[in-house]
Amino acid sequence: xxxxxxxxxxxxxxLPTPLDAFNAAPDDEAGALLLHCLHSRRWSHRLTAHRPYPxxxxxxxxxxxxxxxxxxxxxxxxxxxxxxPDLPHDTYxxxxxxxxxxxxxxxxxxxxxxxxxxxxxxxxxxxDRVLEGIYxxxxxxxxxxxxxxxxxxxxxxxxxxxxxxRGAGNCATSHPQPAPGA
Length: 182
Fold this sequence. Notes:
- By secondary structure, the protein is mainly α.
- It has a single domain, classed as Oxo-4-hydroxy-4-carboxy-5-ureidoimidazoline decarboxylase (UraD-like, Orthogonal Bundle), CATH 1.10.3330.
- It has eight helices and no strands.
- It has helices at residues 18-24, 27-37, 41-49, 56-68, 72-80, 93-110, 126-137, 142-166.
- The longest helix is centred in the C-terminal third of the chain and has 25 residues, at 142-166.
- It is globular, with a radius of gyration of 21 Å.
- The N and C termini lie far apart (65 Å).
């Protein structure tokens, strides 16, 4: 039995995604979003200049590579834009005092804020993780700590980008909210 002609496939209209908005945004808007992810102008310019990205994984891979390529000056700029992670409001004062003292010693040794990715850490464990991290990393060699900082910044930037570009709305023009581990 012969069938008649089939109907053409129904195509849904393409709805813009946050990545589409990022790719189409003016350079200054895309750059501003990227600076919320990692506070390095060179990193931001590099990622902005290589748009459009075909998918989020491509952007995240480019962000990783650009983070690993940070010069010492770029790393200093990125670290200057970071702050200690937020801890629960009910953190007891002795722990806050211990963290303040540990951070002061860390900053005196390395000359920058302590950075750590906490995105996969339950909130009730964040204080312990930060204290353990700052104490253990305070004993490292400055070059080893530089490598660790780059890795922590990479993880922070990746999580922030992922949060902004998987979120709803036009992320290229909306005001970013703090990302996990920030």
